[in-house]
Amino acid sequence: MNSNYTVASHIFHSGEIVTLDSTTISPEALAIGDGRILAIGDLLDLEKVCGSETRRVDLEGGTLIPSLRDHHLHLVNVGMSLRNAELKERLFLDLRGASSEQEIASRVSERAAQTVAGEWIVGKGWNQHDWGTSVLPTHHMLTEATPENPVFLGRVDAHCAWVNRLALDIAGITPSSPEIYGGAVLRASGGEPTGIVLERAAEPLLERIPPFADEDISMAFRLAAEKLAENGVTEVYDAGFLLAAAIVSMGCDFGRYLDLLRALDEVDPLPIRVNLMVPAPSPFVDELTSNPSSYEVISPRLRVTHVKLYADGAFGSRGAALSHPFDDDPSARGVLRMSLDEILFQTRRAIEAGLDIATHAIGDEAVGQVLDAYENVLDDMPDIAPRRFRIEHFGYASEGDIERAARLGILLVTQPNFIFPDDAGVTMEQQRLGAESCRRVYPWRTLSTLGAPLAGSSDYFNEPGPTLWDFYSAATRKNPDGDPESGWQPQERLSREDSLRLVTTLFPPNGAEPIGGRLVVGEPADLTILSANPLTVDEGQILDTRVIATIRAGEFTYGGPAESA
Questions:
Q1: 15 pairs with which residues across the strands?
Q2: DSSP assigned state of 396
Q3: How many other CB atoms sit within 10 Å of the CB of residue 94?
Q4: What integer best gives the mean pLDDT of the chain?
């Protein structure tokens, strides 16, 4: 037994305890107190740290693991999806799963019949692959269905919008309008806008859409935090508040959202810790970097930790910046949202202000540019911890940049659930990049072998999926139905132990040493109790594993098993 002999508040026993630590492989019990793990070992020995107030928790055959941590999601947007479902889509149309353009146009037309002419109709979640095509739609069907209401429909990737003619006209997007830096308006012959806008080209539209009400935003934060605690999560990094229909924009009133989140937490403390990223360039980042101490600790559960940059877009809408043409559209190579000089400026400013930097970069061209900027700053500031620099969604890079990212030691944030092969075992990334290039997509085992710091995340901006979805995807590289049988690019899957470490390890800001990822004496008592052991349960049952309870700093934030005498 290991112990610092503080009296325990709880002792967990009569179940499996997955420590992910070689010194205590199969302990009988675990004791916590003062918000930390006090002792691990035989139940009889742990009785020595008990007092009259110690609560003995019977796991009833469940499994205790380090709690889940999520390094990249969008809290208010998760909550807005939950809130919207409660309100029967009053806030926006939920277009996930729509099987055709016609179906979406019909739903928009139905909404228009209940909406005053001139008011915006907003929706999100459409995906042209659900219609059996990789071709992006045009405005014509929306325009015909809804001529008197501007329509804005965000794609499932949050980097692309599909709009009707009236919306284009209101935003001043015409055949002769100039291109918007950092974005793209897709055009037909003669320069006619098709109705698809990518990246920053969506901002003239977004700034004209009325914002959500304070009540809905506050409720969204609460619903999201409670749902994540229910999913076994104790701490998250919020990667930026997205605007209507979950679209990336620098125009979000971050201060308003932050004030609402702070007020909500003051009235009733949130069940999770939230580390906030502020998108740049934006007026709020100008304020933040001038006075970072004002936001360093907002409450015991809230703090601003990162400046967030967007180097490019996403694969699905062909906005990810590539060094080569897209395999399924040779006319496209993606969109660079920022120049190298801009990334350098924002990175230096953040680091000098004591904040960390996180940059969205998906295409290999964007990844290379971000690495150039980070390496430049690290060369000039050799005493800065490399883990203060993050690349969000790191998943496609040249072999040289994969090795460079590992050598630099920057934090690489992955989203295992992005791997979602169809029934034939083909992913969207494979369609976009081609079979040969896909050998370098989501190279987790390669990065792990090279010693790169890897952080797991979901990138949720809808309702969270199954508790162990990211663990399952990292370990199997299959879709939830188990396809393909051998896994997609199976040479890059992680072991179950490494997959569990990926989703339970927390990389704190300021380059501090990782915490969690294993159960050892002295670590924070952030724990999750599951219905099954993720290391041994049958693969087909991983996604059915339930959360019995979530414990943050020694306090139950969700559920709780029966206590024994």
A1: none
A2: B
A3: 18
A4: 95
For residue 210, whether the previous peptide bond is cis, meaning omega lies within 30 degrees of 0, is no
Q: Say if residues 557 and 491 touch (Cβ distance below 8 Å).
A: no
Question: Measured in whole angstroms, how far is the alpha carbon of residue 326 from the centre of its chain?
Answer: 25
CB of 84 closer than 8 Å to CB of 73: no
Q: Give the whole-angstrom CA distance, residue 417 versus residue 473.
A: 6
Tell me: the pLDDT tens digits for 34-63?
999 999 999 999 988 999 899 999 999 999
Domain final residue pick, 142, 173, 206: 206
Question: Quick check: helix, strand or coil at residue 136?
Answer: coil
Q: Angle formed by the axes of helices 364-380 and 340-352, to 10°?
A: 40
Same domain, 455 and 351: yes
Is residue 310 located within the same domain as residue 413? yes
**Structure confidence at residue 358 (pLDDT):** 98
CB 56 within 8 A of CB 223: no
362 and 458 together in one domain: yes
Do 540 and 495 reside in the same domain of the chain? no
121: tokens are 């109709």
Pairing state between β 29-33 and 68-73: unpaired
- What pLDDT is attached to residue 3? 46
* Contact assessment for residue 148 and residue 118, using Cβ atoms and an 8 Å cutoff: yes
b/e for 335-346, b at 16 or more Cβ within 10 A?
bbbbeeebbbeb
Closest CA to 358 of 303, 284, 308: 308
The 10s digit of each residue's pLDDT in 111-143 is: 999 999 999 999 999 999 999 999 999 999 999
Burial grade of 522 (CB within 10 A; 0-12, 13-18, 19 or more): exposed
CB neighbours of residue 172 within 10 Å: 9
* 134 in a structural domain: yes
> How far apart, in whole angstroms, are the C-alpha atoms of residue 295 and residue 209?
28
Residue with tokens 């999560």: 233
Report if pTM > 0.85. Answer: yes
